[in-house]
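Let us work through a complete example step by step.
Step 1: write down the sequence.
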Amino acid sequence: MSIAKAELRAEMMRRRDELPERERRGAAIRERVIGLPAYAAAQAIHCYISMRSEVDTRPLIGDALARGKRVAVPVVVPKAAELAHAWLASLAGDDLVAGSFGTFNPRDMQPAAPGEWDLAIVPLLAFDRRGYRVGYGAGYYDRTLAGLPGRYRLGVAYAAQQLDEVPAGPYDERLDAVATERGVIICKDA
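Step 2: predict the structure and record it as tokens.
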């Protein structure tokens, strides 16, 4: 990882951590996601369970489950190059257990294979209008998204996380859109 990218991650994490009114902003982002045709049409979604100052996805996951959608979540397996994925039956406290790096996993691990969902909702630290994102640096989501041809790829972020351009390499996967509290940015040529 380059020093410039590491510095960018640290700066964007700080910017996100210090952002005021994250709860209000997050509610607006969730409403934008729920209003998307891709969300309405999806019978199954893949969505991260938020941690730290990420956009809170638990209400979105709850909405999806209440609508009868199946929900898969990422599972970080220490020292593995790829994310694992599991179906989530509920957000009830006793249905989740602590995972790696501050993540949460379903207690009952029912494996979900990439591509079994119609819509992938991914976290990010920074993004640009081209659909490139900066994540935490392990490449998990780029490898996951590379295996999802034809599936809708949506980032959720606060508007303050948008940059004019993020560094992108040959293995960086682009998003179809990014939902912020200010609107949904459709990424051109993604």
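Step 3: interpret the result. Residues 3-17 form the longest helix (15 residues).
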